[in-house]
Amino acid sequence: MSQSVKDTLQRVRGGDRHAAAELLPLVYDELRKLARSRLAREAPGQTLPATALVHEAYLRLVGEQDSGWDNKGHFFAAAAEAMRRILIERARRYGAVRHGAGQKRVTLASEISLAAPADPEQLLAIDEALSRLEAKDEQMAGVVKLRYFAGLDIDETAQALGVSTRTVNRLWTAARAWLARELGAGSAAP
Question: Which residues contact 18 (CB under 8 A, 6 or more apart)?
């Protein structure tokens, strides 16, 4: 992490509003990469552009009273969570208008993959299952958020969480199996 990003994050954490304005240009390209990666896996017809997702997530991040970002990885994990929440909120709004807010159980062929759900109802079902997983194992849920919603690979996820790639692989495999069971898919392939 460049020292300027680290220093700026510290100043933002301290409540310096000028630092918040300086932070966006320093992290914008990486945030756009995360947003493009996530939106590329969305269902066809998605109308939210990557720029809008980045800006909305950024506004949420700098608007938090106690951001508590310790490092760049922590900041990007928070950004991934903000993007996830934005997409979930959009799916709920879409589902409420178009489908009468009815939810149904989703079955997945053999595993939780990085492919986007075909409709907002599936995204909501995955989010509900992820919330239950988070109550059971916060670290495992964090791996799913970074891999599935932020589109990070194993190495990037390990770096963001400050754990080994072997740990991320183990957690990812267990999380996919758990989510597949929760979503009614039976068992997940390794």
Answer: 11
